[in-house]
Structure formats: structure tokens, C-alpha cells
Amino acid sequence: MKKMLFYQPAIFLIVMFTFLSSAQADGFWDQGFRTGTLRTDFDDQTTGLQSNPLVQSDTCLFPAVTFAISCNPFDTDGLIKSHYREPYNFHWPTSRPWPSSTDGFWALSVNNENVPENFNLGPPNQSLPVMYSDIVSPPQVNDIAKGTMNIAMQLIPASALTGAEKKRIHMMINNKYVPGNEKYSQKEDSTPFLGIGAFQKRGNKGQVLGALNAGNSRSHTLNFTTTMWGAKGGVIHPVKVVQNNILSYALFVFSEWGGVPRAVAIQLFHQNQDWSCPSGTSSNRDVRDCLETLDSRPSAKWNWTIEQSYFSPGAEIVNMDAEDLQDLCDFQRTNVSGTALKWRLGPREKSTYHIDLQELFECASSLGMFSENMPTNQVLPITGVLWALEATGKNGVLWTSLENMHMN
Predict the structure, then answer these.
(1) Residue-wise over 249-273: b if at least 16 C-beta within 10 A, else e?
(2) Percentage of the chain surpassing pLDDT 90?
(3) pTM confidence score
(4) Which of 103, 169, 253, 348 has its CA 20 to 30 A from that of 226?
């Protein structure tokens, strides 16, 4: 009996330690974006050069699809070069060593479509140089706009309201082409894509961010604050125009089932393009009726066959416009809430979001958006989150900031 009394506390502590360790494994490695350490995609800083060429997988997630990289390396439209002139790697703080594959860091995506084009001097997902700025006060456009792909880090001092010191990252795509200037090498027929996120296999120390179908025992609510500082390049949605400038600020959340990575993308801001239902043309459209008219749901099967990249092997991605979440998913402020009484951001608007990812994925699945419905009888990992800007056309600017990203 004395033995029992001696060992019971030890067993209890072991059980509690195991439970707490498991609970702490969920979430971002940098909850609240306090350190802000970040870097570009490839672990090795020479990846993409002739000395360390890209490796394209022999298999393909969606064999019949040529987007974004063809499964057939001899397909001219989907060909990637094995090596490039510049690696275009970047990390912050630059005064510290390059974060290794096992370190915690936020992952940057710096891609310029069309992937096969020879004018990209850097490899896919590190296509163009990252132009960086330090800022200490509310910035102006000229403080950041130094190239096509721009980021700036802003310090949020510690206070009774915000708690410990945090960071705010600004992201800006500045569509401009200056011949001979590699900082501005976006062309009229290309699409720059700039994002920041955390992934189980890149930056988040091998840990998932949370889980679906696990109830409250696992993290599945995503929280963040974001500001739309400005958008320029055409007439603001929902007034649809025939124009080549499409701007998008989207949140991507990744999970996996049936052996296929899958993602829901929420368009927090979009201009000249509807995403929930591509045939929708007005703000008062009934998006559910619109979806019923489609032969197939608005999902994208997306191959990414570069083995060294965290996007490999690709994903099935479904899109929903933020302003349609209430109609499509019956989302109220308990599901997606912000300081504004609407979900889609407008210029100079700041909003704080709390998104129940369980209900988000359940909604997308119930609408038949995925090629295979989300199973309900197994725990599914939340493997990554990405906030990204994307733009088409030969001019235009899209500028946002992001802070206080955390899971619970």
C-alpha cells in the first residue's frame, strides 16, 4: 500500500505532463507573432542554383492537371528549369543565423507565375528578391514600395492592453515592370504571389497547428488581426469590369484526408474577381443559387512537384469570398468575428478574426466543394496556414499588414 501511495503521484504527474505536452504541441511556434523570425522556402540557401538544382518528383498528385507545374517535365507549359541564376533566399532578423529546418520560423512564399517563364531569375516560390524595410511608425507607401515583393516589420511595444512586445508584418505587391531592374521584374502576363505562414513541414518545428474532428481537446480556432492599407488597380469589387487587374488577399488553411492535402481559401479582399461562385456578378447575388448553376464546384487541383518546397506535392483548394460566409456557412460573429461588422476588408479597414476551422471545413465539405467529402470519423491534422497577396496585370498595388496570429 505504501508503494501505491508513493507511485500514484508520479503516475499522475507523468499523465499530466503527457497531456500538457500534447496540448502545447498545437498552435504556432510563435503564438501571437512575438519574435517574427521568418525565412523563405528552401532549407539550403543554394537550392535552385546549378550547384544544387531543383528536384522534380516522378509522381504527381493530379496527373491530368497542368496547373501550376505539369506532371510531364517535357510539357513546355509546365516545364521548370533545374537551376536558376539567383537563389533569392531571405531571412529576418538578418543579424541572426539562417534558421535551420528544425528551428521555428514563419515561412515566406515569394512566387511569380507563370512558373516556367525564363524572366524569373529565382526558382519557384523564391522567384523574385524580397525587398525589406524596418519601420517604427505608421508607414507610407514609399516607405515600403522598393520592388515587386515587399515586406516591412513594425514593432508593437509592450503595453497593458497588448501585453508583451509583438511584431506587425506589412506585405505589399507593387506591380511594376522596369526593364533591366530585377527588383521590378513583374511583367504584364505574370502573377506575383507573396505570403507568410506556418506549416508542419516548414517552420512549425514539425508540429501540426491543431486538429479537426477532435472537439475541444485540440486547437481549431484561428485568431489574427489584419489591416488593408490600400489597393490600387481597377474598380473595387463588387462592381465587375472587364479589366486585367485582379487583386486578392486570401487566408489559406490546410488539412489532409484521403492521401491528398486540401485547403480552404477565404478571400478577405478581392477585386475584379468573384471566388465563391465565378459566375456571380453582383453583390446581391444569391451565392447558393449561383453554386447550383455550376457543373463543378469552384475548387482548384494544384500540382507542386518541386520536392524541396514546402508546397510539395500540391493541394486541392476551394475558395470562398469572405462576404459569402454568412450565406454559405451560416457563420455568425461566434464563428468569424471582427471589429468591423463585415468579413470582407475594405481599404484602410482593420479587423480581428476568430475563425472556427472545424465549422469552416465542415461547411466547404457540405457544399460539395471538395472532390472527396471530409470524413467525420477520424481526427484530421491542421497542417498549415498561409496569408497571401496575389495580383495580375501590369500595374496596381496591394498592401496589408498582419499581427497577433495564434491558435486556440
Answers:
(1) bbbbbbbbbeebbbbbbbbbbbbbb
(2) 47
(3) 0.87
(4) 103
